[in-house]
Write a structure and sequence with these properties.
This protein has about 500 residues and is of the alpha/beta class. Helices cover about 40% and strands about 15% of the residues. The two termini are about 20 Å apart.
């Protein structure tokens, strides 16, 4: 299932219309609305009330009126505008004037009229701002009626990009959305104002969305099983990769510990931590399944750039490397970042870069990623530093900027937030809506890095994009389980690791 912005949806529709026509898409939308009503009740002889605007959403309503009339429904269309329908909506309106369909203005609607089915087709995905008062009065008056309430594509009054909602909207039982779920429908407050969301195809095909580029798919349960490596009877620890985690400092030892434990829980066959002795001792005291390499220490307790040769030796013997957690942002760290990426390219090892690794990358320049199989996991501030944008710009354009970064660097980008977007440079995008506000505490990103690294390691570096997307989704699922068992206020990132299930 795709999740589209308004502009992306318009582009996909235009491509699809080249094969048929916009009128054909509208006919299919009307049929989808009628079919949904008929699926939920026998509409023969039932009273159907359809509120229609003058644009394409109203055209969908006119088409639905025609098909419901064919099914034996007693249909009344209420024109909510003072001007005649235009364009293809006008063609649909003309087509129903000869049918047994009652057409009235909003002022002619009797206050005691009690429909069995109510369809909102006044404003569609192009709506912005507040509903006109005459429309909001009518729609809000019918919000509490006992009819089956259906919204055509999106409830009138909701911004399809931002999820903001006008006062006086009609909250439906079901929204029949066409071709793809609209971005705003997944955001608050709109996601609670759409009722059940049912997506129906109207002739816009997968290739149409792919032609638009960087249109997110919703990541769902049924995708996960195809990604997780199978454990066969003769499997051994070498069958599931050798992961090297680099990071930590005397001040930040917890970050790599969280990553190590998450990686072990995520299926990696062997996990090695390369850090300063103090960190290795702390982690080793409570994690028995990890091995360690002691690196040289700089004057603030972090990893010294004198460790470059040791790190390269470790990378030459591993199948996946992750770094950045607890690294600290120093001149040594910038040098290490450059050399780790160089070694990863030399030995063709996929590398997951997080936290201070990303901050160092913003200093080295992202061009050093060319030719590297990399995964970047920025939160909005880190994404802003990597693309040279302020936080407000990032929050308003997170997907676009993540896609820009992915295309420029050739890296997989997991842009953290709600939703988290997982972007591939070839235009593939997943959106994951799992997870909750209980993750808004230090250490959550370190757990995610460990899961991504562990799953990529166990898959032996194959299907990096799919493993990254699955990791984000499973991390959020585990967080949702944790919130149910403990509460969002009390849960810790380490609790989430213990609830990973796959």
């Amino acid at each position: 299932m795709y999740i589209c912005s308004v502009d992306q949806m318009r582009s996909a529709e235009a491509i699809a219309a080249q094969r048929s026509s916009f009128l054909s898409l509208m006919e299919n939308a009307g049929r989808a609305l009628a079919d949904e009503a008929a699926r939920r009740m026998d509409v023969n002889g039932k009273k159907v009330l359809i509120f229609c605007g003058k644009g394409n959403n109203g055209g969908d309503g006119f088409a639905a009126a025609k098909y419901l009339s064919f099914l034996g429904a007693d249909v009344t269309v209420v024109l909510m505008i003072n001007t005649a329908p235009t364009g293809i909506a006008g063609q649909e309106f003309t087509s129903i004037t000869s049918e047994k369909i009652r057409i009235i203005g909003a002022g002619e609607l009797s206050s005691d009229f009690a429909p069995d089915v109510l369809i909102d087709a006044v404003f569609g995905t192009g709506f912005r701002g507040e509903l006109p008062e005459n429309v909001s009065v009518v729609l809000s008056a019918y919000s509490s009626c006992k009819a089956l309430k259906i919204a055509a594509d999106i409830p009138s009054g909701i911004n399809a990009d931002t999820g903001t909602a006008s006062r006086g909207i009609l909250v439906p039982d079901v929204t029949v959305t066409f071709g793809a779920v609209k971005t705003g429908m997944t955001l608050s407050p709109a996601k609670k104002l759409c009722g059940e969301i049912v997506m129906r195809s109207i002739g816009i095909e997968e290739r149409d969305f792919e032609s638009v580029g960087f249109v997110p798919r919703l990541y769902e349960d049924d995708i996960v099983s195809s990604v997780i490596p199978k454990r066969h009877e003769y499997s051994h620890k070498g069958s599931f990769g050798k992961l090297l985690i680099i990071g930590g400092s005397s001040t930040y030892s917890g970050a790599v510990k969280l990553s190590v434990k998450a990686a072990l829980r995520s299926g990696a066959g062997l996990v090695r931590l390369a850090s300063v002795p103090r960190v290795n001792d702390r982690v080793g005291a409570s994690v028995d399944e990890c091995t360690f390499t002691d690196l040289f220490v700089n004057d603030i307790g972090g990893i010294s750039s004198a460790s470059v040769e040791l790190i390269e030796q470790c990378i030459s013997g591993c199948t996946t490397v992750a770094f950045g957690g607890g690294l600290t942002f120093t001149e040594d760290s910038v040098i290490l970042t450059r050399e780790i990426i160089s070694s990863a390219k030399k030995y063709d090892v996929p590398v997951i870069i997080d936290a201070d690794g990303l901050n160092c990358l913003s200093q080295t320049g992202t061009d050093i990623l060319s030719g590297c199989r990399a995964v970047l996991t920025p939160h909005p501030a880190e994404l802003g530093r990597l693309v040279g944008a302020d936080i407000a710009t990032v929050l308003a354009n997170r997907l676009e900027l993540a896609a820009k970064l992915s295309k420029k660097t050739g890296a997989i980008v997991a842009a953290k937030g709600y939703p988290t977007y997982i972007v591939s440079p070839d235009g593939r995008v997943y959106a994951s809506y799992t997870g909750n506000a209980g993750l808004s505490r230090g250490g959550s990103g370190d757990v995610l890095t460990g899961i991504i690294a562990g799953l990529i390691a166990s898959a032996k570096g194959d299907r990096i994009f799919d493993c990254t997307a699955a990791s984000v989704y499973l991390f959020g699922k585990a967080a949702d389980i944790t919130a149910e068992e403990i509460s969002q206020n009390n849960m810790l990132p380490s609790d989430v690791t213990e609830r990973l299930r796959f």
